[in-house]
Amino acid sequence: MVKHQPLQVYEKQVFVSFVTGIYGCRWKRYQRSQDDSSRWECTWFIILCSSFLLLLFWAYFWSVAQNDFNEFNLSVYNRSGVWKDETIPLLASTTVGFSYITFLLILALFHISLGQQLNLYWVHKIGVSATLLTTISGVITVDDIWRDEWDILFVSLQATAPFLHIGALATVTAVSWLIAGYVIRRERSSKYFQIMVLLVYALVLVALYLVPLTFNCPCIMDRHRLKPRPDIIGRRGAPMLAPEHTVVSFNRALQHGASSLEADVAISVDGVPFLMRDRTLRRTTDVSKIFPARQLDDASLFNWTEIRSLNAGQWFLKSDPYWTVETLTARERSRIGNQTVCSLTEMLRLASRANISALLNIRKPLPEHPRSRNWFMDTLWAVQKSGISQKRVTWTPDTDRGRVRGLQQAANEKLSVEEIRQRGITSLTLHYSKASHRDIQEYLANNVSVTVYPVNEPWLYSILWCSGVPSVSSDAPQVLRKVPYPIWLMSQNAYNFIWISSDLLSLIIVIGIFCFQKWKMSGMQNYNPEQIMLSAVSHRTSRDVNIMKEKLILSGAEVNDMLDSVITTLSVSKHWTISW
Question: Where are the transmembrane segments (predicted)?
Answer without folding.
Answer: 42-62, 88-110, 122-142, 162-184, 196-215, 497-516
